[in-house]
From TrEMBL, chain A:
This is Uncharacterized protein DUF3445. It comes from Ruegeria conchae. Pfam families: HODM_asu-like (PF11927).
UniProtKB/TrEMBL annotation, chain B:
Residues 9-126 form the Dimethylamine monooxygenase subunit DmmA-like N-terminal domain. Pfam families: DmmA-like_C, DmmA-like_N. It comes from the Bacteria. One of its GO terms (molecular function) is 2 iron, 2 sulfur cluster binding. NCBIfam families: mono_DmmA_fam (NF041259). This is Uncharacterized protein. InterPro entries: DmmA-like_C, DmmA-like_N. It comes from Ruegeria conchae. Residues 137-180 form the Dimethylamine monooxygenase subunit DmmA-like C-terminal domain. Keywords: 2Fe-2S, Flavoprotein, Iron, Iron-sulfur, Metal-binding, Oxidoreductase.
Length: 355, 198
């Protein structure tokens, strides 16, 4: 299929919007009517046709505008992209993985021509046609990780593996759910997750680490995570929290339908071949409450999840103050009917709202 | 009392130890303020005869008592920043097997630890013991400026002037805790500052 790329903004006037196609394929993260932390890993080997899980690196209608937003963030704060000196090889690994995957998965949008180390990369949506020498940094305008992640949606954490541990030693982080690469770079897996409540005590991180250390080449994995964001703001960074934090207080019963967004991260994990590093793309999808409510099953379920979420989690996810207003809105879309298991919209089989 | 029991915290928060004598031909000790007492507690004539001791008084007066221990080398520095060049010079000549003892505030120990690791010594060669002030070295996540010796929460960033709350999240690379605007969601609503552990 050919993707029509939106011309939209993720700041100031917030013209971001989802087409009907994007709403139907939104990665709704709740497979049942309640939520608690879990490792929830599965293999990342495709998914239903047209879903965000189908390709290794999903490209959607927001691609071009998201890359413009990333460039703005990097202009304002170059510390959002950093790589410790020993991570350059992993950067080349990542460049290769993304170029090969995108050119194979979206041949109408991306082309990669390789003749030994002489590579030609064509990125049609962004208007790039670039010949360079693989593994020769002087032939790229940026380091390899920065070069390719300026052309790929989502954040990228590149993790070194040593001493049976993962280390956050490189990354491109401009669409994050309130964590700082500049602060966390160099930390180990337990340290950078330190601020997350409850999950440590539940053993979540120990199990997750064990799983991740054993990810093999060619056998990537994935999981979903989620939070809430007022306005379709991609850059919810701690660096800029002193500017965007106040936006949370602009929510009213009149604007909540289009202003409040469910923010879902599709997290994938790939082993990199030369460096043995692990790359951890964190792809952010936003969907407004009013768009989510067009799927009756999701309307019923989101109300129940938000209502029953433990206070600690709602606080950590930053919407405890707005929860009552969210519930007032969401309850209109919950008629008490049961919901079908799983995350899919099930539009053909689930009953319409009956109230 | 110069010893303080830190409350249990999150996984990125450092846990400091208690100094003990280790065998080895060369020893480097950096004692800041009440850290001098931790050195005095473990000092033996044999250990001190192989020790380069750097003392940063920060308002304390342990100079005579430390010199009476007869360290192989003794240096008193008015501040950590002033001592840094000497510390780097000493580490430049360090051989494998050098034993490092850091004692004083968290900020000094965190920064000195980075210097030691940067020259390639293993972290297992470093011992630490917290003594004295529980003030923290804080990095403002917004402007990136570091404010030294922060005793209260919230505090004012010495660089950008925002009111920041004191997190327990700690970066070893920066040797600093993270400070985040406390009134970001309600501008001007800054709680009364109180001691970090009050």
């Amino acid at each position: 299929m050919t993707i029509q790329f939106n011309d939209e903004s993720f700041r100031d006037d917030y013209t971001f919007h989802n087409s009907e196609w994007a709403i139907k394929r939104f990665p709704f993260p709740f497979h049942e009517d309640s939520y608690m932390y879990s490792v929830n890993m599965e293999q990342h080997r495709g998914g239903p046709e047209g879903s965000v899980y189908e390709m290794r690196f999903d490209v959607d209608e927001h691609y071009v505008s998201e890359m413009k937003d990333r460039a703005i963030v990097l202009d304002q704060d170059p510390l959002r992209c950093q790589s410790l000196p020993h991570m350059t090889l992993a950067g080349w690994d990542l460049l290769e993985l993304i170029m090969v995957s995108k050119s194979e998965d979206y041949p109408d949008l991306f082309e990669l021509h390789r003749n030994g180390n002489q590579w030609r990369w064509i990125n049609k949506p962004l208007g790039i046609d670039h010949s360079f020498t693989f593994m020769d940094e002087t032939t790229l305008p940026y380091g390899p990780m920065e070069y390719i992640t300026r052309q790929a949606q989502g954040d990228f954490a590149v993790l070194d593996q040593r001493d049976e541990m993962l280390w956050m030693d490189a990354g491109m982080v401009t669409t994050q759910a309130d964590w700082s690469l500049d602060f966390d770079i160099g930390m180990n897996f337990f340290e950078w997750h330190a601020p997350v409540p409850k999950a440590h005590e539940m053993g979540i991180f120990k199990r997750a680490l064990k799983f991740l250390l054993n990810i093999q080449q060619g056998a990537p994995a994935r999981r979903l995570n989620w939070t809430m964001t007022v306005n379709p703001l991609l850059d919810t960074s701690p660096e800029n929290y002193h500017k965007w934090g106040i936006q949370k207080t602009t929510l009213t019963p009149e604007n909540i339908a289009h202003k409040q967004h469910l923010r879902v991260e599709l997290q994938t994990f790939f082993r990199l071949p030369r460096s043995n590093a692990l790359v951890f793309p964190i792809r952010c999808y936003l969907c407004s409450f009013q768009d989510l409510m067009t799927v009756p099953k999701w309307g019923r379920r989101l109300h129940r999840v938000v209502r029953d979420l433990p206070v600690e989690l709602a606080t950590y996810k930053g919407f405890i103050d707005n929860r009552p207003m969210m519930l007032d809105y969401l309850s209109q879309f919950d008629d008490g009917l049961p919901t079908s298991p799983g995350v899919w919209p099930d539009l053909e089989t689930e009953p319409p709202l009956s109230k | 009392m110069s010893k303080f029991e830190f409350p249990k915290s999150i996984a990125s928060r450092p846990i400091w130890g208690t100094l003990e004598v280790r065998s080895g031909e060369h020893h480097l000790m950096i004692a800041e303020a009440e850290g001098a007492e931790a050195v005095i507690d473990i000092a033996t004539p044999d250990l001190m005869a192989k020790t380069h001791l750097i003392y940063i008084p920060k308002g304390t007066d342990f100079s005579e008592r430390l010199q009476a221990l007869n360290p192989a080398q003794f240096y008193e520095s008015p501040s950590y920043a002033a001592a840094l060049h000497r510390i780097r010079r000493v580490l430049e000549d360090a051989h494998m097997g050098l034993q490092v003892y850091l004692t004083g505030t968290e900020g000094m120990m965190g920064q000195a630890m980075n210097e030691v690791v940067a020259v390639g010594l293993p972290h297992t060669a470093i011992q630490t013991e917290h003594r004295g002030s529980v003030a923290r070295r804080m990095q403002c996540v917004h402007c990136k400026g570091v404010t030294e010796d922060v005793e209260v929460d919230p505090f004012v960033c010495s660089h950008c002037g925002l009111n920041l709350f004191v997190r327990d999240h700690y970066s070893r690379r920066l040797a600093a805790y993270q400070g985040v605007r406390v009134d970001a969601e309600d501008h001007g609503n800054v709680p009364e500052p109180k001691g970090i552990y009050e």
